[in-house]
Amino acid sequence: MATHVTIIGAGLGGLTLARVLHLHGIPATVYEAEPAPSARAQGGMLDIHDYNGQLALQAADLMDEFRGLILDGRQAMRILDRDGTVLFEKVDDGTGGRPEVQRGDLRQLLLDSLPAGTVRWGHQVSAARTLDDGRHEVTFADGDTVRTGLLIGADGAWSRIRPLLSAATPEYTGTSFVETYLFQADTRHSAAAKAVGGGSLMAVGPDREIHAHRESGDTLHTYVLLTRPLDWFAAIDFTDAAAATARIAQEFHDWTPELTALITDGDTAPVHRPHYALPEEHRWDRLPGVTLLGDAAHLTAPNGEGANLAMLDGADLGQALAAHPGDVESALTAYEQTMFPRTADTEADTARLQQSLFGDEAPPARQTRP
Ligand SMILES: Cc1cc2nc3c(=O)[nH]c(=O)nc-3n(C[C@H](O)[C@H](O)[C@H](O)COP(=O)(O)OP(=O)(O)OC[C@H]3O[C@@H](n4cnc5c(N)ncnc54)[C@H](O)[C@@H]3O)c2cc1C
């Protein structure tokens, strides 16, 4: 009988793994800290690439359903100077290979593809340890425990499973997003909506950028990127929305108003999201019966690849387990031998792209796309 797989975390990576295991008849349970699927808004749009995220969806046999989620026209892109001059413009002719979907829709698609009861909501892991018999024991916040022969940490940046394998912890990269939303943008925020166009916008300065996406409906999602130390943000009172908005907008005082409107017209209070990363090429020695995927394994500042890689990790791991029935260690070894170099290649590609776009002005964690 196939080893039951215990997955911690119902993000895109953990759910893709559970789905691929289900297709191969391998039983799995996903333990998720959040109390319910709708407990938290799932964030903005994701572009799902034909070279990683879409491969995972093919392995999950969900490509047809995925196509139904794609938001038409959103692969259009504009890069503007701070005075509004268009530096680069790309229309969406449907051939870009990076269709955009709402993250919440994609997560729901994966949830709907699993047998009822696969995800155990409201199970926040507080610790994990290896037992004398080689299995692993997971302890939840309410004191309950489960013991498992195969434990997968898909629990994101602050993984509670990672310490079984690695002493690495995420560190602040020096960059943060400040996010806000503009609703009914075409009618209520027309200058900002025009600047963004049909897809996404990037406006660049040396240590500050404004990114915006046109999400479903005519909602604009603004990500202001600032290269500042954490104590710079700590001095801003984000509970006072108007004051925080004014403080962030002040950093763009000499930018054109059609761009700063993406900050000052925000319909939601600005939210500070600091970026953390694990050391580059983070890896670990094989420990029987446990591995990591997605951000738990290779957290980086947002570079447009994280969710795609998490899904491909999940798909690859599920397929490796199916290909090595009764031999978990060979499956985990095969998975890690693919995952480690792929992560390193993606980090190197991102660095090369940043260098070609921004030259020596690129800080270490420069964003190319949220
Ligand atoms: C602002 C922003 C924009 C981004 N944009 C993009 C993009 O456009 N494209 C892209 O590819 N990537 C993007 N990323 C990166 C992407 O979000 C992550 O890489 C991706 O979500 C990683 O997936 P995951 O499944 O590994 O982890 P997560 O999505 O973090 O999922 C982990 C899950 O584990 C649960 N969990 C955490 N701790 C515990 C615990 N102790 N016990 C039980 N459950 C737990 C969490 O609640 C969560 O459901 C962006 C990131 C940010 C911050």
3D architecture notes:
With 370 residues, this protein is an alpha/beta fold. Helices cover 33% and strands 23% of the residues. The chain has helices at residues 12-23, 53-59, 63-67, 103-112, 185-188, 190-196, 230-234, 241-250, 257-264, 295-298, 306-323, 328-358; strands at residues 5-8, 28-31, 45-47, 77-80, 86-90, 100-102, 119-120, 125-130, 136-140, 145-148, 151-153, 171-182, 200-204, 208-214, 220-227, 271-277, 290-292. The strands form four sheets. A seven-stranded mixed β-sheet has the order 5-4-13-14-15-12-16, with helices on one face. Helix 1 (12-23) packs parallel to helix 4, helix 1 (12-23) packs parallel to helix 11 and helix 6 crosses helix 9 (257-264). Residues 8-14, 31-34, 46-47, 124-125, 154-156, 160, 177, 273, 294-296, 302, 304-308, 310, 369-370 line the site of flavin-adenine dinucleotide.
Note the main attributes of this structure.
370 residues, alpha/beta, seven-stranded mixed β-sheet, five-stranded parallel β-sheet, 33% helix, globular, binds flavin-adenine dinucleotide
Which helices and strands appear, and what pairs or packs with what?
Blueprint: E1 5-8, H1 12-23, E2 28-31, E3 45-47, H2 53-59, H3 63-67, E4 77-80, E5 86-90, E6 100-102, H4 103-112, E7 119-120, E8 125-130, E9 136-140, E10 145-148, E11 151-153, E12 171-182, H5 185-188, H6 190-196, E13 200-204, E14 208-214, E15 220-227, H7 230-234, H8 241-250, H9 257-264, E16 271-277, E17 290-292, H10 295-298, H11 306-323, H12 328-358
Bound molecules: flavin-adenine dinucleotide.
